[in-house]
């Protein structure tokens, strides 16, 4: 990352930050109801995930993880489909959380990174020899991925594998990090779209609706613009709300707000950057609405009922992701409403 000498005071300001004000983050897109079986989904998904996370987990630890409401994320993003598909979605929410934590390390689960990723690829493509045990840190993958393969249409599973491979590649520690490589907001967003783990969630909409959209629907210019706008909205919300946790974890540069402070000469305080980020979130919502209307209008005009049903669910990612961040304890908000106010960082 290149920033001018004049920004050294900004870095000092960032590292010494004690608090900031989070303005209200409004969303004009109505949120949908959650999956009707979300409580059962949470119970079953937690029972599946906790032994993989820590087989000797105490009741207090289980309660702490339960308060994060991780399975609910997918029950909100994919509020349709059978109970069986909803449970798979809930397990995938934990799958993504566990995999993300592993790939944060140079040696995931204590395994050499290259060996870990090779084994992961083998499980994804069904080429890992069944007689060979997987690394303990990949047992949750070996358990869930075959179930996804048998539950998704081949084309949908292929979409999911492609998104998972792009995500894993974005977490490659041999590639310069976002903090090192981002020189503009646009370059940051382009990299961040891959590692925020939203795109691998989209095939679960197809799975739950029991449809398999052709590549022509998912690769049109307007659809990709819609997908990027949704992804950007989600990652910007995540960046600004997760910042206190990232700073406490000594990762202050993993946020658009931090990078803007260091890269943009017109931004002099972290509060200025938070305000700018919240304004960007509103701009992205308007972008989502614009491209949604374009893609939906074309889908209706062409009689593409499957794409219409898919888009109706896809759009809910925006308000429901925002809502989730304010009811989960993952980033310390958990107020059920807007989360705005003075945030104590350290």
UniProtKB/TrEMBL annotation:
Native source organism of the sequence: Selaginella moellendorffii
GO biological process, one term: isoprenoid biosynthetic process
Pfam family membership, one: Terpene_syn_C_2
Entries under InterPro entries matching the protein: Isoprenoid_synthase_dom_sf, Terpene_cyclase-like_2
Keywords: Lyase, Magnesium, Metal-binding
EC number of this enzyme: 4.2.3.-
Gene Ontology molecular function: any one: metal ion binding
Cofactor entry: Mg(2+)
Keyword Hydrolase: no
UniProt keyword ATP-binding, yes or no: no
Protein name: Terpene synthase
Family the UniProt entry places it in: Belongs to the terpene synthase family.
């Amino acid at each position: 990352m290149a920033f001018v000498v004049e920004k050294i005071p900004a870095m000092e300001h960032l590292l010494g930050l004690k608090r900031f004000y989070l303005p209200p983050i409004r969303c004009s897109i109505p949120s949908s109801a959650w999956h009707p079986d979300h409580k059962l989904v949470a119970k079953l998904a937690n029972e599946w995930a906790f032994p993989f996370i820590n087989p000797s987990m105490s009741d207090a630890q289980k309660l702490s993880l339960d308060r994060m409401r991780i399975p609910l994320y997918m029950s909100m993003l994919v509020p349709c489909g059978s109970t069986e598909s909803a449970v798979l979605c809930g397990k995938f929410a934990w799958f993504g959380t566990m995999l993300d934590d592993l790939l944060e390390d140079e040696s995931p689960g204590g395994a050499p990174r290259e060996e870990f990723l090779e084994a992961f690829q083998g499980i994804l493509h069904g080429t890992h020899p069944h007689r060979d045990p997987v690394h303990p840190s990949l047992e949750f993958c070996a358990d869930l991925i075959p179930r996804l393969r048998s539950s998704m249409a081949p084309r949908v599973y292929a979409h999911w594998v492609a998104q998972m491979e792009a995500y894993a590649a974005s977490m490659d520690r041999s590639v310069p990090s976002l903090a090192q490589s981002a020189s503009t907001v646009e370059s940051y967003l382009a990299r961040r779209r891959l590692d925020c783990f939203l795109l691998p969630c989209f095939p679960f909409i197809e799975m739950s609706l029991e449809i398999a959209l052709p590549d022509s629907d998912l690769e049109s210019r307007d659809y990709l613009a819609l997908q990027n706008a949704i992804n950007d909205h989600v990652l910007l919300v995540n960046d600004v709300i997760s910042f206190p946790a990232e700073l406490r974890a000594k990762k202050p540069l993993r946020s658009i707000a931090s990078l803007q402070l260091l890269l943009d000469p017109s931004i002099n305080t972290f509060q200025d950057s938070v305000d700018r980020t919240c304004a960007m979130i509103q701009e992205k919502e308007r972008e989502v609405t614009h491209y949604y209307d374009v893609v939906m209008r074309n889908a209706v005009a062409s009689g593409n009922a499957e794409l219409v049903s898919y888009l109706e669910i896809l759009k809910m990612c925006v308000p429901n992701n925002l809502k989730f961040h304010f009811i989960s304890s993952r980033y310390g908000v958990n107020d059920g409403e807007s989360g705005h106010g003075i945030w104590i960082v350290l």
